[in-house]
Amino acid sequence: MSLRDYSLYLMETLKCWSSLHEYIVVFLFLTTISKGSACEAPSSPECFRRKTEEFVYWCEWSMMNTTESNVTFDLYINSNIKRKNIKETSTLINGEDVKIIYDTVDILVKAHVGNSSCTSTGTSVVLGHTVKYEAPKDISMSWLKNNLSLSWAAAEKKHPASAEILFRRDARPTESWGKITKNTTSETSIYHVIVENLLKDSDYQVKIRQRSTQAPNPLWSDWSPVVIVPAELEQKPEVTMMQRLLNGTRAVTLTWKPMPHAVTYSLNDTQSSSGCPCKKKRDLIHTTTYTTYVSYSAVSISVIGANAAGKSSPAILQVPAEPAADLQICDKTLLDEDLDKKTCLEWYELQDGDSRPENVMTLTSRKRKRQRKHIEMNMKDYVRYLYYEHRCDGGKPKTVQMCLFYQKEGVPLKEPQDFIVFSETHTSANLSWKAIPSVDQQGFLTHYSLCSVNISSQDEPKECHNISASVMRYRLENLTPAAKYNISLVGVTRVGEGPAATVTIDVLPEKLGNVWWSLSLLFLFFLLTTMCTCILKRIKNKIFSPVPTPVIPDFIPYQPESQDLIERKEEVHELTLHPLHPEGKSVPKDAEETAVLVRQWDDCMDEDVENERGDSGGPSEECSSPGSTEEALRSRGGEMTDLEQVDNEIAMLIYRNGLVFDVQTEDSL
Q1: What separation in angstroms does the CA of 604 have from each of 72, 437, 625?
Q2: 427 Cβ neighbours under 8 A, 6+ residues apart
Q3: 534 three-state secondary structure
Q4: Does residue 378 sit in helix, strand or coil?
Q5: Are the C-beta atoms of residues 49 and 58 closer than 8 Å to each other?
Q6: What's the rounded Cα separation, in Å, for the pair 493 and 502?
Q7: Helix 589-613 crosses helix 626-634 at what angle (to 10 degrees)?
Q8: CA-to-CA distance for 545 and 551, rounded, in angstroms?
Q9: Which of 174, 149, 175 has its CA nearest to residue 163?
C-alpha cells in the first residue's frame, strides 16, 4: 500500500473515533510518517574526468523533488566514504585519493534530509575510461554560401570531438529542432563543424553539445546556451561622404544606410592605422553616421558592417590628396631630424602626377629607427615624391607642409611627346607637344629649349628659344617663305638636357593671290580717294558758284563718201559777222538785210556741199559770185559803225575745206 492510500485508510478510521484526544494522537502519528518519507533518493552518480590526460575526477548527480535547503550528501566508492557532508550535487576527487583508476568501482550517493536519509542506486564505472567534456563555449559562426560554419574552443587541443547540433529558424520558435551529429575538425585550439543546406538569409537558433572520441567511455557534455545565428551580410554598406576643409585638416562625414541583420559597424583609415599622427582607437559604431578627421594626404577609409555571423565586405572610400595650386620644390625634409610624438612624415611616390597610397612611406616617432632604415633603403633616385609633414593639433591631424621632392635628380629619359606642326603660313608655323611623363623626367623641368635651323640656306644661323615648362604650344614666326627648317625640342632639368624631339617643316611660298589682294586694296584706295575728291568738289561747287563758260556746239566733220572727194583742193571762203546791237537799241533795217544775206550765204554753202556729193557739179550762179555778197556788204559799210559798241561780240567764222575756225576780234580780247 502506498503512503497516500494508507493515509486515506486512517482518515476513514478516524471517523469512528469520537474523542478529541484520539484525533491529536492520530495527527502526531501522520506527521511522523510524513517526515520520514521526505527523503527522496538522488540519481545515480556519474564520475569522470574532463580530459583524457587529467587525474582529477568529477562526480555529479541530481536531486529532483526536494524543497529542503539543508540537504547534504555522502559519496561512497566501493562502500568507502570518500566525501562527507557535500552541500552541492557535484564534487571533485583527486586522483591520488582513488587507488584503483583502471578497475571497475562501485559508486553511490547517500542523501541526508533532516533526520531522514536515502541512498541512490550504485554505478559501476572505470574512472580512467570515462571522460565528459564541458559544454561548448565562445561559439562563433559564419556563413559559407548556404552552409553554416560553427567554431568554439576545443576541449582537447590534440583530439577532435563528436558534436551534436540542434538548430531551427528563429522566426519559428515552435518548429521542431533539426539535429546532426558530426565529428569536429581541429585546428590548434578551435573545433569546427559545418552544417549544410541552411538558408543564409534567415536567422537560426543553435545549441551544441560534445563528447570525446578518444575515451573508451565518453559522456555527452551539457548543452550550450542557445545562440542566435543572424543571416549573412551579403552586401557592403552604402556609404556617402562629405568633406570640409578646416585649415590643414579635413572633416570627413560618412553616412550609410542601415544594413539588415547588422548590429555594429567598424571604421578604419590607412592614415591612423599607421599611426600618422593622432592614432585613433575606435570602438564599434552603433549609429549610421560618423565624422572623422584626416590630413591633406590621400587616405583610404573602410566601413564594415558586422554581426554575430560575420562581417560584410568593406565599403572602401578613397579620399584623394588635397590638390595644391602651386606645389613648391622642397630640397630638404625632416628625415634626418628628431621627431616628437605629434609629428608624422609621409612620402608618396608619384606616377604621372597621381598619388598612389600603396606606395606611401611613413615615418613616426614611435618606430623611428626601423622606419627610417626602411625609407633610406627603399627611396629611389630620379623618382618624384610628394612629401607631407603632419602634426597632431588638438587631437586632429593637420598638414603643415606639402611639396615635391627628389632624392637625386637626373636628365630626362625621353623627349617631349607627340611633337607636331600645324597651321603653317609662308612666315610662321604653330608647334604643339605633350609633356614628358613624370616617371621619365627624373628631375624638375626648368624649361623647354626650342631650336630652328634653315637647311635651305647656309647664311641663317641657328635660333633657339627657352619656353616655360608649363607651356605646351608655341608659334614660331619670322620664317623665310618656301624654306625648309629642322625644328628640335628638348626638356631641360637642373642637371641638363634630355633627348630631343625633331620635326622638319617646309614653309609655304608666298601666294599669287596675295599680290592680287594687294592690288585690290590699292585699287580700292584710289577709288575711295577719287570718290572723296568728287564729293569735295560738289561741296565746293555748292558753296562757291562756278564761272559760266561759253558753250560751243559739237561740230561733226564732213566725211567724204569717196576717195576722190578727199583729194579736192581746199577752198577758203571768208565771212565776217558783225556784232549784234545792244539790247536797248533797235536793229536797223539794213542790219536785218545783212542777216538775210548771211543766211543766203549759208544756204549757198549747203548747196555746194550737196552738189559736190552729186554727179552734177558747180554751185549756183547766185552763190558762185562772191562779188555780189561783198558789194552788198560794202554798200552798207557805213552803217556798221552803229554795231561796234555791242558788249557781246560774235566771233568771225572762217571756212576752209569744210572746217570751221573761231577767230575772235581784238575788241573781244
Answers
A1: 190, 111, 11
A2: 477, 478, 479, 480, 481, 507
A3: helix
A4: helix
A5: yes
A6: 19
A7: 170
A8: 17
A9: 149
